Amino acid sequence: MSDLTVVYYTANVIPDDFAKKVRQTLRDATDDYIIAVSKKPIAFGENIVVDTPRSHISIYRDALTGAKAAKTKYIALCEDDVLYSPAHFKHRPKDGVFAYNMSAWNTQPWESVFHHKAGGRRNLNSLICERDLFIEAMEERFTKHPNGTDPAIWAEPGKYENQLGVTVQPTEVFYSNPPNIVFYHDTALSFEHLAKRKRLGEFRAIEVPYWGRAEDIIKEYK
Hints:
By secondary structure, the chain is α/β, with parallel strands linked by helices. The chain is built from six helices and 14 strands. It is globular. The relative contact order is 0.19.
């Protein structure tokens, strides 16, 4: 039996065909148990439907709901617009540490190219950690800030904890091979603020091993 549960969360705003293809890619990438937290019922994993508004803070509430339903030592947090490679789910962090996969390429429908920024970024959608550790960290935050805070400082474990007045969490990074693919699109929450002004990262590629050409990925998942 696996020691990891995939906690998949979605606001159900991306097109259905796109969503189904992403979920199938996730299912093909891992045999681990999947808990899907969604705003509407979906036929995927153990589905938990939540009545939370679509917001930056709700992402963390929904992820916490999924974590509490998990029974395994570890969880992997997964979003509805990321293609995960099988290698991603093989990593296990050190005890008491939040691990972020920094091996990810970004793409968007209006640019036929993969790209990422130098240094990368710790994203919730790349997090693997102990279930109890995540629950403890999130519950501390929501106890101290029950209505959330400015999204600018409500971020992943290991970020802005001094500003939030909560326990500073240790983090580590890892790099999967193959990498993950992250879509930036017009239904993404961040698109409401950045739209098409989001800059491409310094590193760019028209093709990535395992996944193929950016233009083909965009066509397939559009």
